[in-house]
Amino acid sequence: MPRPQPTGGSPGTLTGASRFTPRLEMRPFRRRDLDALVDAAADSLSDLSKWLPWAHSGYGRRDALVFLRDSVSAWGEGRAFDFTIRYLDRPGFHVGNVSAWFISRQSRVGEVGYWIRSSETGKGVATEATARILAVAFDELRLHRVVLRIAVGNRGSERVAEKLGFTREGLLRQELQVNGVWMDHSIWGILEEEYRNLRPEYADEGWLTA
């Protein structure tokens, strides 16, 4: 298929269709994803709790249900767009989450975030899924700029940002409290023009279809 052209104009919204990469399906969450989400979180809490405030030791079905309800609501209201990540050959297995949301609609600025279950890290899933969510952000939401915020010390997430061509722009001091500790976060940005120049490289790497 031809490469999507810049759309410009006002920010857009998203349909509920699945998005695909060579290995992955990314789709909106459904209520029936509850057990798969709880299972993935339980597999990953010891790692995620270092960086994410929601990943506390008591995380369980109630927490996951609150997330699913908010995710469905946020999608319907156009506030944020959460995707469950699944392998094409294992559609019932929750690999992780990837999301995009608006920071400023007027300025066409958004943010992306992701987590990958511990058993599946180191396999390039985060990079592949984030490459696809950038296509969503720039081609469908019509954003001009996308940022990532990464806890200082989370080298795995920094590598994703580096591979995708984000620029490290600065440090947000004590930006988020995790397990009672205020944590600094680095902020990374990528512009629409940069994304469009990099997209052929994403395809060459196998993260997107050409």
List keywords for this structure.
210 residues, alpha+beta, Aminopeptidase, 8-stranded mixed sheet, 5 helices
Task: Please provide a written account of the structure.
This protein has about 210 residues and is α+β, with helices and mostly antiparallel strands. The protein has a single domain (about 20-205), classed as Gcn5-related N-acetyltransferase (GNAT) (Aminopeptidase, 3-Layer(aba) Sandwich). About 35% of the residues lie in helices and about 30% in strands. The protein is built from five helices and eight strands, in the order ββααβββαβαββα. An eight-stranded mixed sheet has the order 1-2-3-4-5-6-8-7, sandwiched between helices. A hairpin with a 3-residue loop joins strand 1 and strand 2. Helix 1 (about 35-50) packs across helix 2 (about 60-75) and helix 3 (about 125-140) crosses helix 5 (about 190-205). The radius of gyration is 16 Å and the shape is globular.
Topology:
Blueprint: E1 19-20, E2 24-28, H1 34-48, H2 61-77, E3 80-87, E4 90-104, E5 109-116, H3 125-140, E6 145-151, H4 155-163, E7 167-178, E8 181-191, H5 192-204
Parallel strand pairs: 5-6
Antiparallel strand pairs: 1-2, 2-3, 3-4, 4-5, 6-8, 7-8
